[in-house]
């Protein structure tokens, strides 16, 4: 019963998001409530699920609130314009090179293993360049997700940390055999980015030929407000001071010196004091950008409700367990590979936490009867799922990304899902050829 209700909740929400029939806040607030009531939970229990879910995403929502205000102010001050001009100069406005650089930079920045931090660092810097060249922001997210999925398999990243907790094998020990897969994956992501760049170049040329917009602006938010009519030649205000503030925030974020929300709270405060010393102006600037920040914070908090009901309501674990009841006995020895093959779509139906904490132990125990060691199970499941979290509505970091990029979650899923799944199959094949499972 829990499995059926859980699947209905997930299918309903994903369908509503992908078809744009309602806002994300409504979909992720109301549908889980109806599902929990149908499952027989009391209002008191549902309130506990809500509290749990909100606590899970509170940090991300708070970080987004202050980060969006901070980066919006930096955009108003034209701080990113020199970077854009430099990138255009280095790439000579070549769409293919920009796409390849996006994948490469995302891989380097994601060395810290934090998806939210990577999105916060790269999107505000690259989005104006993409818009200047008429490139789709959905392509930017796709290319980032491909590289980030490969780099996500570092020992301090989420997947191996979870797998280590389940199997008792140290994350560093699990990681060493994965290094060749990561190298292959990064090279492949850059090459794939080049192919997507060629496709994007043709699309832009067609759009110009027909006199239509070079990219479709279907945004939830407009972090980089087109009403400002930036040409990219505007002179940055207090450039050295503000760029130092941005770099300091990024360094603190990467090194974990302070909690991420607090870093952006302090960065915003410093930006306001430096650039708008009059209190009345500070309030006016915050009020100007508050609707954008609050809209996305509301979506992230409602995603927490979705996660809380699915997790604490036992639906995620129930879905994971029941999926395993349909296995034919002759496939037991290959079952971990089968799960790896469908790892990306499973992330949508089970969440990353459920994938590793609920599904991994069950798969490990099932294939153990065929003599398959736990490490092999981890490799098949981790490689197959490496970028699944970046197309999952369960992931607060994904909501953060679509918010900063000013795009629609449903369209991001439609644009990226199949490509990310296909790329995961390529890296899974590389792992199999290298004898990891």
Describe, in plain words, how this protein is organized in 3D.
This protein is mostly helical. It has one domain. 75% of the residues lie in helices and 0% in strands. Helix 5 runs antiparallel to helix 10. It is globular, with a radius of gyration of 22 Å. The two termini are 34 Å apart.
Quick overview of this protein structure:
With 437 residues, this protein is mainly alpha-helical. It has 19 helices and no strands. The chain has helices at 2-19, 24-38, 43-76, 81-91, 95-109, 115-133, 137-151, 158-167, 171-175, 179-210, 239-255, 260-275, 279-312, 315-323, 335-341, 343-368, 374-384, 396-405, 409-433.
Q: Give average pLDDT, whole number.
A: 83
Tell me the structural class: mainly alpha
The figure for the number of domains is 1
Distance between the termini: 34 Å
Secondary-structure element string: HHHHHHHHHHHHHHHHHHH
* Model regions low in confidence, pLDDT < 50 over at least 5 residues: 216-232
Strand content: under 5%
Q: What is the gyration radius calculated from CA atoms?
A: 22 Å
Q: If helices are DSSP runs of H or I spanning 4 or more residues, what is the number of helices?
A: 19
Instruction: Identify the overall geometry.
Output: globular
Q: Biggest β-sheet, characterized?
A: none
Q: How many DSSP E strands?
A: 0
Helix content: over 70%
């Amino acid at each position: 019963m829990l499995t059926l209700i859980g699947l209905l909740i997930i299918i309903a929400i994903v369908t509503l998001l992908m078809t744009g029939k309602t806002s994300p806040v409504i979909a992720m607030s109301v549908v889980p409530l109806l599902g929990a009531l149908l499952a027989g939970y009391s209002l008191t229990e549902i309130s506990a699920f809500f509290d749990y879910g909100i606590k899970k995403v509170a940090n991300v929502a708070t970080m987004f609130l202050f980060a969006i205000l901070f980066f919006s102010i930096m955009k108003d001050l034209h701080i990113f314009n020199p970077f854009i001009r430099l990138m255009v100069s280095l790439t000579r406005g070549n769409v293919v090179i920009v796409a390849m650089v996006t994948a490469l930079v995302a891989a380097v920045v994601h060395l810290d293993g934090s998806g939210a931090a990577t999105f916060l660092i790269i999107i505000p810097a690259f989005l104006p360049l993409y818009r200047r060249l008429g490139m789709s922001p959905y392509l930017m997210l796709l290319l980032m997700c491909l590289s980030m999925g490969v780099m996500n398999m570092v020992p301090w990243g989420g997947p191996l940390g979870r797998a280590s907790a389940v199997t008792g094998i140290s994350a560093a020990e699990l990681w060493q055999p994965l290094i060749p897969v990561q190298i292959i994956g990064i090279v492949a992501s850059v090459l794939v980015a080049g192919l997507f760049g060629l496709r994007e170049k043709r699309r832009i040329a067609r759009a110009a030929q027909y006199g239509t917009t070079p990219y479709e602006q279907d945004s939830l938010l407009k972090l980089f407000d087109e009403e400002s009519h930036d040409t990219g030649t505007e002179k940055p205000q207090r450039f050295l001071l503000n760029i130092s503030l941005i770099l300091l925030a990024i360094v603190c974020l990467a090194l974990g010196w302070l909690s991420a929300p607090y870093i952006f709270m302090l960065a915003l405060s410093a930006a306001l004091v430096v650039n708008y010393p009059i209190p009345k102006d500070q309030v006016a600037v915050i009020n100007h950008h508050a609707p954008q920040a609050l809209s996305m914070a509301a979506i992230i908090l409602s995603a927490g409700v979705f996660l809380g009901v699915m997790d604490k309501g036992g639906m995620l674990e129930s879905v994971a367990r029941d999926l395993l009841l349909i296995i034919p006995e002759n496939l037991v020895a290959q079952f971990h590979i089968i799960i790896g093959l469908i790892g990306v779509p499973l992330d949508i139906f089970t969440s990353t936490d459920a994938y590793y904490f609920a599904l991994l132990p069950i798969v490990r125990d099932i294939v153990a009867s065929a003599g398959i060691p736990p490490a092999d199970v981890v490799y098949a499941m981790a490689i197959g799922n490496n970028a699944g979290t970046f197309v999952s509505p369960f992931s607060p970091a994904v909501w953060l990304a679509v918010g900063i990029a000013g795009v629609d979650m449903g369209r991001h899923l439609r644009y990226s899902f199949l490509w990310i799944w296909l790329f995961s199959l390529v890296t899974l094949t590389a792992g199999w050829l290298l004898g990891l499972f």
